[in-house]
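Good morning N.,

You mentioned wanting to compare the apo and holo forms, so I went ahead and generated the holo version with manganese (II) ion. This is what I fed in:
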Amino acid sequence: MLMTTKTEKKKTTPEQIGLAQAALERAHQLIRSAQRPLLICHISPDGDAIGSMVGLGRALRQRGLSPILACSDPISPAFSYIPGIEGIVGKIEDADSFDLVITLDSSDMERLGHFPNVPGFRDVPLLNIDHHATNLDFGDANLVDRAASSTAEIVLQLLETMAAPLDADIATALLTGIVGDTRGFRTNNVTPQVLEAALRLMKAGASLPNVARHTLDTRPTAAIRLWGEALARLQCQGRVIWTSIPLAARRAVGYTGDGDASLVSFLISAEDADAAAVFTEREGDRIEVGLRARPGFDVAQVALQLGGGGHALAAGCTLPGPLEEAQTRLLAVLKASLAEQRTKREM
Ligand code: 5GP
Ligand code: MN
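and this is what came out, ligand included:
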């Protein structure tokens, strides 16, 4: 949205450029007048949440700011190859000492965990940086590009607007976000601009093979055993493929990581499915639901109806248990939505 070469200008309407540039400049202005920003990424953080936050945090520190990086949930050791993740805090007492809050990769305030409830939080200006289709524009300023591959790609554009130099550590963090959210440049929002962004990060010192190996091709062995448990319960009916992971199964295989260990992204590869769902039972009678759609379908609206969010092709929500009930409830909404989407397409 930022590049201003002649050929790209031709392809983009002036309104789109105007909007994006105004948002970038507003974000830049907020950052210029801040000294101690609080950066927060979403709960159950993925590579884009962590990478965009750590990359931005390091760039701000290099400009003489004193950012604090925060996440309400623990950070998986799988991300320890990203320099700077060790500095992320899980809690703050109050927000009084901060002059700006920057949220990353979060479509709504609930995704920030406990931070919005700390004293003083609502008195600090909030800059919302995100790419989710379902983003609620909850910031005082919203740098939201729903067509962007990742929040990391938006952060890169912001840093370039600020003329902030990139180093290998910033580039590694940001490339993690792009590679993770595009599953290695394979999602349908990958454009030449995304590849160009990755190219600039590689030129700044990021290693694509290294990032891809850590982000996509390394997982705990227990995650593979978890897939085994889940695949044994697989169901496919009416062009929906789904399975569930009871708490007992997670415990039996000793899996301690987040969610479904990306199983739902694998399930949508089924030829017979337009949508995939994985229901993961968690402590506290919560059922985490991961949703995926075949291109041409949209599961974000299903997630949104049930209090969650995401993108057309990858979304999620958390439902109250028990597992069976959550499954029945979600599948009914999903099947109705897919039927409606098919009817609309035929019209
Ligand atoms: P995943 O299945 O990879 O955890 O999530 C897919 C997408 O849906 C991600 O973009 C993620 O941010 C979003 N998502 C997953 N769960 C929730 C949720 O409970 N609430 C919201 N707002 N978004 C979610
Ligand atoms: Mn993201």
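Confidence is low (pLDDT under 50) at residues 1-18.

Happy to go through it together on a call whenever suits you.

Best,
F.
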